[in-house]
Write a structure and sequence with these properties.
three-stranded antiparallel β-sheet, Aspartate Aminotransferase, domain 2, binds pyridoxal-5'-phosphate, seven-stranded mixed β-sheet, globular, 2 domains, 40% helix, Aspartate Aminotransferase, domain 1
């Protein structure tokens, strides 16, 4: 019907679709447990709400500069100094509508048609589609040992004459893995050696467990000049539980940031002003909510991993961060979409199929919800899969009898 080639090639975000499915079933009164979500359930920090309200109270909610209001850039500059030990100028900062838009405008700014972007497997569902929207070609790089941690050689092997950029997300959605310092240092050096852009998606880097500290990619390079091709992306979405505000940012050299700002100015203009004010409140306000969230997630991670380990045949890698776990269910079913559909149909548990993240046989399970739901969700999954479990299960006020093997 005359749609563009790109439009025809782009899939709907499967994780956002799962949110919709869960909401529809809940509205129908189904006892759904949503283990495919991508957002913390805590409230936004009060400083964010008050700052946002102060703008709304004026009744004067106007366009902002396309690359963000100066006060938010200032807060981001301070954040970058505090957490990366790096002093950047306002011209090195762009504020976007979420980390998603920051990555998207970065890709638009650096890719020519058919140029390739290499990223490790498993990967965040949106990377391949975002690269395609920008006219590029996604090149997922799988670990040669089939695990969650590709080596620098695995990344290097995926690089070809058309490669323009490498895209790294650590801690990783969906595996929860934090890549090693050696790997990150190796990738930074590899990108420099091959003159490639390197986008570091640090969306989850404050949500790390077991006393680990986030690595700082700037530690691995001596190039702090305006020639550097390193772009670092962050957002308020996950660490402050502010997904709905849609504020993220990128730090890069002045030339690429200017190009990104030009694209954004023609695409959406600046992010919504009330959201920018909220982000100023969050970044400049009391920071204790991040640690409270991090500790809650670490506890939920422990509960989820313990329960998964109790299911015979399930292989689970303990996540180092994020709020996702990516267990291997292939002992039960190799086709992850089939397994995800089966769990939804039989026991009303929503899970995200591993195939969407580049790895069959796995499911992505989130532990950002209530502990009670995590426990019950895993109980239901075990009941549905493990033939040794009891014959009956109570689902809300319904009694289920297992009539499948
Ligand atoms: C790895 C990764 N990067 C970026 C984003 C997008 O963040 P935002 O909501 O700020 O656009 C997400 C959201 O799920 C994510 O998992």
């Amino acid at each position: 019907m005359g749609l563009s080639q790109i439009a025809r090639s782009i899939k709907e975000s499967p994780t956002l679709k799962l949110n919709e499915t869960a909401a529809i079933l809940r509205d129908k009164g189904e006892p759904v447990i949503h283990l495919a979500g991508g957002e913390p359930k805590s409230k936004a920090p009060i400083d964010a709400i008050l700052q946002c309200a102060s703008l709304l109270n004026t009744g004067e909610v106007r366009y902002t500069p396309a690359d963000g209001v100066p006060a938010l850039k200032k807060a981001v500059i301070r954040y970058t100094e505090d957490h990366y030990g790096r002093l950047v100028a306002p011209e090195n900062v762009i504020i976007s509508s979420g980390a998603k838009q920051a990555i998207m405008v970065a890709l638009h700014a650096i890719l020519d048609p058919t140029e390739e972007v290499v990223f490790p497997v498993p990967y965040w569902v949106s990377y391949p589609e975002m690269v395609r929207i920008a006219g590029g070609v996604p090149v997922p790089a799988a670990a040669s040992d089939g695990g969650f941690r590709p080596s620098v050689q695995d990344i290097e092997q995926a690089i070809g004459p058309a490669t323009k950029a490498i895209l790294i997300n650590s801690p990783n959605n969906p595996s929860g893995v934090v890549y090693s310092r050696e790997f990150l240092a190796g990738v930074v050096q590899l990108a420099e050696k091959r003159d490639l852009w390197l986008i570091m998606d640090d969306t989850y880097n404050r949500l790390i467990f077991d006393g680990r500290q986030p690595d700082n990619c700037y530690d691995f390079t001596d190039d702090h000049s305006e020639q550097s091709k390193l772009i670092v992306v962050n957002c308020v979405s996950k660490m402050y539980a502010m997904t709905g505000f849609r504020i993220g940012w990128a730090i890069g050299n002045r030339e690429v940031v200017r190009a990104m700002a030009n694209i954004q100015s023609q695409q959406t203009s600046g992010p919504a002003a009330p959201s920018q004010w909220a982000a100023i409140g969050a970044l400049n306000g009391v920071q204790s909510s991040i640690e409270a969230l991090r500790m809650t997630l670490e506890n939920a991670r422990n509960v989820m991993v313990d329960r998964l380990q109790a299911i015979p045949g399930v292989q689970v890698t303990r996540p180092d961060g994020t709020f996702y776990c990516f267990p291997d269910f292939s002992a039960y079913e190799k086709d992850s979409r089939k397994l995800s559909d089966f769990l939804l149909e039989k026991v009303r548990v929503v899970t995200a199929p591993g195939k969407e993240f580049g790895m069959e046989g796995h499911l992505r399970l989130s532990y950002c919800g209530a502990l009670r739901e995590i426990k019950e969700g895993l109980e239901r999954i075990q009941w549905a899969l493990d033939p040794e479990s009891a014959n009956e299960l109570h689902l809300g006020n319904r009694k289920l009898v297992r009539d499948w093997k």
